[in-house]
């Protein structure tokens, strides 16, 4: 099912990976103590600007800053929308 959203300009829509629920030693992490994920998958990409061509494409796994982007909920899922400049790396 395709999303009915198209980011404008140099913005990117990212689906963050799920936060860890258990440590490597088997301890369960409560919701209040979970780290905000800094890794996700690109779901939609804007067209860029005349000065900035887009580097990322749909399906890329990316790393981004801890406080980058704006959180939004679409069709029951959580997403982040941010400028491509806020993405640190493609992995």
Q: Can you put this structure into words, describing what you see?
A:
This is Co-chaperonin GroES. It is found in: Cytoplasm. InterPro entries: Chaperonin_GroES (IPR020818), Chaperonin_GroES_sf (IPR037124), Chaprnonin_Cpn10_CS (IPR018369), GroES-like_sf (IPR011032). Keywords: Chaperone, Cytoplasm. The structure is a single chain. By secondary structure, the protein is mostly beta strands. The chain has one domain (9-17, 25-50, 60-88): Roll (10 Kd Chaperonin, Protein Cpn10, Chain O), CATH 2.30.33. It is 0% helix and 36% strand. The chain has a six-stranded antiparallel sheet, with no helix packed on it. The model has no long low-confidence stretch (mean pLDDT 86).
Order of helices and strands: EEEEEE
Structural class: mainly beta
Largest sheet: 6 strands, antiparallel
Distance from N terminus to C terminus (CA atoms, Å) equals 25 Å
Taking pLDDT < 50 over at least 5 consecutive residues as the criterion, the unreliable ranges are: none
Strand content: 35-45%
How many beta-strand runs? 6
GO molecular function: ATP binding; metal ion binding; protein folding chaperone; protein-folding chaperone binding; unfolded protein binding
Pfam family, one: Cpn10
GO cellular component, one term: cytoplasm
Main location: cytoplasm
List the helices and strands and how they pair.
Elements lengths: L10 E6 L22 E7 L15 E4 L5 E5 L2 E7 L3 E4 L1
Attribute tags:
single chain, 91 residues, mainly beta, 10 Kd Chaperonin, Protein Cpn10, Chain O, six-stranded antiparallel beta sheet, elongated
């Amino acid at each position: 099912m395709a999303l009915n959203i198209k980011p404008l300009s140099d913005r990117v829509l990212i689906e963050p990976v799920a936060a860890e629920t258990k440590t490597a030693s088997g301890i369960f992490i409560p919701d209040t103590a979970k780290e905000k994920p800094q890794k996700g998958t690109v779901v939609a990409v804007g067209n860029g600007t005349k000065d900035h061509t887009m580097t990322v494409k749909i399906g890329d796994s990316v790393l981004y800053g801890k406080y980058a982007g704006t959180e939004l909920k679409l069709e029951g899922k959580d997403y982040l929308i941010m400028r491509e400049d806020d993405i640190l790396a493609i992995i």
